[in-house]
Known about the structure:
29% strand, Aminopeptidase, alpha+beta, globular, eight-stranded mixed sheet
Amino acid sequence: MEQSTGTIQSYPLYVLTKELAEKFIDQISYLLAQIPQVIITKDEILAGKKGERVLYGKWDLSLIVMQENKVIAVLIVYERKGENNVQYPFHTLYLSDLAVHPDYQRHGIGKALLEYVIDSTKSKGLKYLEGEPNISIQTNKAEFNSYVQHFYESLGFVKRAEKIYEDRIDNIYGLTFTTSKCEVKQLSNRNENVIHQTISKLNNSYS
Length: 207
């Protein structure tokens, strides 16, 4: 195993490289099979594209949580290009698939994983595409999935749009990071000082 990047609820956290995905493909496939009304093949798990969509940074941004040689959680992540529509209006960090092993659910592992990604994105921004740091995620709109919907909302995600499929409708949620009022005031003061300095230089050049 490669060196872990940290821990999630005391379990080692690893970047999901393609090599690790190939090694643990059966376990990852088992976890992702829990996602309702979504079928993800092993080939799709290992793919770097989805149709024409390039999955930017997938093998650098995705994560797995391990207990010895057992995958107990997986989060497939990549940067997704904006599509000039209300669903995906700008480039975003896209949380494609999140699953936790049934024996480890309701222990805060999924939440801790998302918080890890949120904190990282807030501090580092997008790595492969240009744009303001933000995160997007889709989940089934059905009533049976209300727990997951409320889970994302509790982390600050706001519903942006819906996406209709043949067998389901997904809610699309977004999380953006805004500058604090204190930072805005500091930036305003700095800009004001720059303007005064520029005017002073111009006055001196004409005097």
